[in-house]
Amino acid sequence: PLEDDHDYDSSSFTVDSLNLQKQIDELSSFSDSPLPSVTRILYSDNDVRARRFIKNLMGLSGLSIREDGVGNIFGRWEGSEPDLPAVSTGSHIDAIPYSGKYDGVVGVLGAIEAINVLKRSGFKPKRSLDVIMFTSEEPTRYGISCLGSRLLAGSVSLATALKQTVDNQNISFLDAAKSAGYAGNEDFSDVFLNDRSYSAFVELHIEQGPILENEGISIGIVTAIAAPASIKIDFGGNGGHAGATLMPQRNDAGLAAAELALAVEKHVLESGSVDTVGTVGILELHPGAINSIPSKSHLEIDTRDIDENRRNNVIEKIHESAVSISKRRGVELLEFKIVNQDPPTLSDESVIKAMESATQVLNLSHKKMISRAYHDSLFMARKAPMGMIFIPCYKGYSHKPEEYASPEDIANGVKVLALTLAKLSIS
Ligand code: GLV
Ligand code: MN
Ligand code: MN
Ligand code: MN
């Protein structure tokens, strides 16, 4: 049936799954770790190769390409009314150490394929359609999550901070960005989107949890994204010889870190809700020798909740524990830095409606759900009505090499994305 009196027929939507899978596999080969794991770090050689790969595909789909100062990549299909705010979709292709092929990638390659689907169906957009590849959704290199979308959303503090930011090899963000061909004018505030850029943003992503697979449902419609936060902590002690320094004389920075890690778990469990989570994903000891008492320790803590106050309460308790542990152990709390403390975000009702009606037209089962992972959508929601489409993934695995989504589930997601974009483009 023709929808909304427009000249396209979603029952004839065809996804080229074979080619899409080939692209997913090829992209996974741009990695700093051996397959099946994927490691693709911001502005690394493999990231630059992957970016070239994406731009090439955008070009083959007839999109006109623009890159901003931090390397967010935009591929535009111009609509018949190009002065209207456009409709945008996209995700990220950076990959945390030893992760999988699908996180983010499905929402970039799948978005380009959604454009191909629409072109093959004869659809002509009214509002322009943008596919966006966001820079550094993952915080791996510079500690900042959703770096590209955070800037697009207008974070003045981030634009300022980036001029001083260095990675753990002391390579500045500016130098790294320049080496990848970006940061031409060093003013990151020129990345900010204006309020009329987009009328809607939709992101396709693997669920990264087990619900859709367990319940045999094809599509998840995200209604809200949980509130993420991250903290960096350094303890300092005197260190010394592991044999000659007797126990009463020690102030072991490593044990302070160990105790704090357990305190994080305790505070999270005491929140009273299963929705509160906390992880010590990084724990480093200096100098890292078996016969040397740690003189420094470094922890990075990730904590999230769908309830912002409850999450903030956990952060406060972690801080209290860090202070009391350092006092009791005679260890210095050198740094307690809240890197980000973001609010949760709701999807927009009008985008939810468009996604829901797309699943109905396409005859796909769907369920409304919360995203416990964060996404660039968290920040794009500040600039446009936002929605997210989830597809099932094997056992809910993500951020590890076993991550997998079937070609069929990906194709369903691409079709729902294509139809949602079409609806939003002509509205
Ligand atoms: C995104 O990768 C997240 O950690 O939620
Ligand atoms: Mn991720
Ligand atoms: Mn992701
Ligand atoms: Mn530190």
Automatic annotation (TrEMBL):
The UniProt entry, under InterPro entries, shows: Amidase_Cbmase, Bact_exopeptidase_dim_dom, Peptidase_M20
Q: What biological-process GO terms show up in the record? A: allantoin catabolic process; purine nucleobase catabolic process; ureide catabolic process
Q: State which Enzyme Commission number(s) the record gives.
A: 3.5.1.116
Instruction: Give GO MF terms, alphabetically.
Output: hydrolase activity, acting on carbon-nitrogen (but not peptide) bonds, in linear amidines; metal ion binding; ureidoglycolate hydrolase activity
User: What chemistry does it catalyse, as a reaction equation?
Assistant: (S)-ureidoglycolate + H2O + 2 H(+) = glyoxylate + 2 NH4(+) + CO2
Pathway as given in its UniProt record: Nitrogen metabolism; (S)-allantoin degradation; glyoxylate from (S)-ureidoglycolate: step 1/1
Which keywords does the record carry? Endoplasmic reticulum, Hydrolase, Manganese, Membrane, Metal-binding, Purine metabolism, Signal, Transmembrane, Transmembrane helix
From what superkingdom does this record's organism come? Eukaryota
Instruction: Please state where this protein is localized.
Output: Endoplasmic reticulum
Q: Which GO terms describe its cellular component?
A: endoplasmic reticulum
Write down the top EC class of this protein.
Answer: hydrolase
**Cofactor(s) the protein needs:** Ni(2+); Mn(2+); Co(2+)
What does the record note on quaternary structure?
A: Homodimer.
Q: Which family is this sequence assigned to?
A: Belongs to the peptidase M20 family.
Name by which UniProt lists this protein: Ureidoglycolate hydrolase
